[in-house]
Predict the structure.
Amino acid sequence: MTTPFTTTPHDPAAEDLQRQREAIAALGHELRLLVDATVRTATSPDTLNRLSDDVRALTGQLTGPRRQPSDLPEVDEFPGGVRMFSPVTGPGSPLAPPMQVRAVHGDVMGQCLLESIPRTTPKPRRRREGDFTRHLPTTWQ
């Protein structure tokens, strides 16, 4: 008896890699939501300070081995494959927009949906003369 061609052999390493990528993408998604909520909030300083402490505690839980910035993550396929932490298309990067990338007729197409922003012109802020220089290093003034 032969095995049908549609049956995929059990590959624990591939399954582990897939679970790792799914977890990275889920965390990246939640971090993007956190960043979005952070830049839109108008909550109290006490709440912001409490949340800052909570985020610091969460960051402390990421205790696994750290790679150097120049090292490729084990979950990436380079060149030409999955890039989980790419700041442009990486589903694990909170900097990357939630982009879907696919091949279309020999080309690559990326698509993402960004939140709409108000189309009103912001009110100009009054600035005292020289106000901007107070925050610059002495060598820039």
About this structure: Residues 12-40 form the longest helix (29 residues).
